[in-house]
Each structure stands twice: as C-alpha cells, then as structure tokens.
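Page 47, continued from p. 46.
Same chain as before, 386 aa.
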Amino acid sequence: MSQETLAPFKKFSFGTQVRKSPFSDAALRWGAKGFSVYNHMYIPRDFGDPVQNFWNLVNDAILCDVAVERQVEITGPDAARFTQYLSCRNLSKCQVGQCKYVLITDQDGGVINDPILLKLAEDHFWLSIADSDVLLWAKGVAASSGMDVIVREPDVSPLQLQGPKSRDVLRAAFGDAPTELKYYWFMEYDWDGVPLIISRTGWSSELGYEIFLRDGSAGDRLWEHIMQAGSAFGLKPGHTSSIRRIEAAMLSYHADMTLENNPFELGLDRLVDLEMDADFVSREALSQIKKNGVSQLLVGLELDGRHLQGSNDKYWPVIRDGQQVGKVTSAIHSPRLKKNIALAMMAREHTEMGTRATVTTADGMRNCKIVPKPFYDPKKSIAVMT
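Result:
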C-alpha cells in the first residue's frame, strides 16, 4: 500500500495501539469523515448526515465496515461443551450453519458481551463480539476449565450489507446461493479464491447480511466489488444507525448494558435456560437472581419537546416526585416516527406502562412517559420475514 494511501488516515490515528481494519482505507476513500474506537480498532462513524444514513438504510442499502466485531474462535474436542459453558443460552439444538444471539455472563451473572454465535462445525465456533474483551475472558476460563480447547482470534473481518435492497446487491455480487439463506443462517463461500462466510444477520433490524472476510489482504478489493455491484441499487457507504437500532430497542454494550447488568433486568430472560443439563459459568448466580427478583428494568421512553440533536453522550437522570428513579441510556430523534425515543434503566416500581416522569437532558428538562419497546416493527417482521 502506498504512502499516499496511508497518509490521509494519519489524522485519525492514535498510533499502533489501535488497529485499522482491512476496510479502513476504502471507507475513507468513500467518504468516511470520522472514526471511533471499538474493540481496540477504528470503526467509521460518520459519513455525513446521520439522518440521511438512516434513510439510505431503510429505503435502499448501506455497506458498513464492522471489522471491529472481532471473532473469538473456539476449536478442539471440547469446543461445544466449552462454548456452552460460557453462555447462559441453551445451545444444544444449534446446528452447523446456524447463528444464535447469545449472552456471555460471568460468575456473578453480569453480562460480559452479547455476541452472535456461528457454528462452523461440531468442534468449531465463532463468537462475533460486541465491544469488550471476550478473548481474554475465554482464554482465562479455558485455562482453568480442564477442557481441551483452543481459543484464539482468527483473521476474520465482517462487513454489514443492510437494507431492503441488500438481497439485490448480494445477488449481483455473489450470485443466487447466498440470497436463499434463512434468517440467522450462514454459508461458506469462495469468492475467486478468497474465503468468505455470508450470514443473514446484522445490527439494523432490516433485511441484511454480513460478509465475513477470512483474508484481510483482500479487504480493499472486497469493498470495491460490493460497492460496484450495488451501484445500480442505490447502495451507499454508511455506518451502523443509532436511529434504527434504538427504534428496534437493540442494546448497545457499554451504553444500555455493562458488566453490572444481568439478563433479567435487561429483559433478556429468553436467553437464559436454568433447566438445561449442561453447566455454565453463571448458573448459580442467575438462579439466585431469578429467585430474588431484580430491582431495575430497561424500558422504552418517549420524550416530549423539540427534536433531540444527536444522541446523548452521558446518562440523563429520570426524575419522579423530586427523586432520581432511573437514567436514560440511549436517546435519539426518529425522523420516521417523528418522536424522541429512548431506552432507560428504571427502578422496577416505576416501570408500569404509561408512567410519566421528567428527564434532565443536555438542553433542559423534558417530560417523558414509559411506552412499549421496540418502538418500530416490534415483531421484527422486516428482518425475519422479508
């Protein structure tokens, strides 16, 4: 790669402690104006107007560099048992070629991460992780587990192709076979000698796919190939949409949940199976939490007043009767719903639907009320049934 190609990225660089992705230079060429850091890597966060990025996503299609979703690879004779040991979700029925949304929980029941699991073989798994150090956790657990496994980070970097025209773009880029994937299934694909995995997954609640590149040296070429294939369908470069993910009440690690939260207060009870035969790290703790109940719950809010400008950059207090009873974790204005919407962690006794309160925002007090979540397409029919 030439110095001319590398030079423009220097204005974003913090040095070698933060890694570029195989797609960073391509994203920069295609208009990325800002990056943030996620899993110790750069991720494009700004391609201009975030509202336009939202409309590009929900009306056409966008291509996003999400190589920051690193893979924790688990292989070996005990890979299946070890992967289950990390997660509180029952994986006994997960088939080769299938994906599952799972929680990685610790000995206290806290959520370490909420990755997508991909089962490549009976003894081969990937955890496609959110923003926390699952690799180190898994290595530590493996070291003391007595199980015969290898835990490592492979050379794998995903792109997200999301939006109602993503299937058309995928067909133009890779033929018919990947377009026949069912929701949360994947296939291995040979793209002119470059190994890929293509899955029908994504962080948008729209029809969408992820293309996992298994050879980082081909990153620039893969990006350009997909963008060229999508030109006839209005494909735009983009970034994961805060507007769309909050509409869908999709949780963001470090924002809506941290290690201090457990699955029950997050409303993720469906991902906990305390009756399964297999053992897992958090079984005892989660059993006790379920028995005792939780003191707080994650809820949806609508906020009155003028459009919120961007998203919140700190937790906003939720006030009732002069007392703080919760905090807003993620807030945004939805141009489609024409409402200010938010996720908030609230004391359980204040979480009844329709409950009214006030929120101390960056630009003053606003009235709010608790409403059902997700805010849009609550049955996920767009992503699942399209």
